Amino acid sequence: MLKVRLNFVEEVLDSFRSSYWQEEKCWFVAYNSKHLFSVPSFADRKVSNYFRPPIHSTTPNPTIYYDQITDLSLYQDSIKNWPRLKYVTTLELYCHIRHSILQTVFNLNRIQHLILSSSVNRSIVILTLNEMTNLRHISIWKNVPRFLEYVRNLEMDQIRTVDLGGDFDIKDHNIIDSLGSVFPRVERLRIPLNHAC
Question: Which residues are bridge partners to 36 per DSSP?
Answer without folding.
Answer: 2, 31
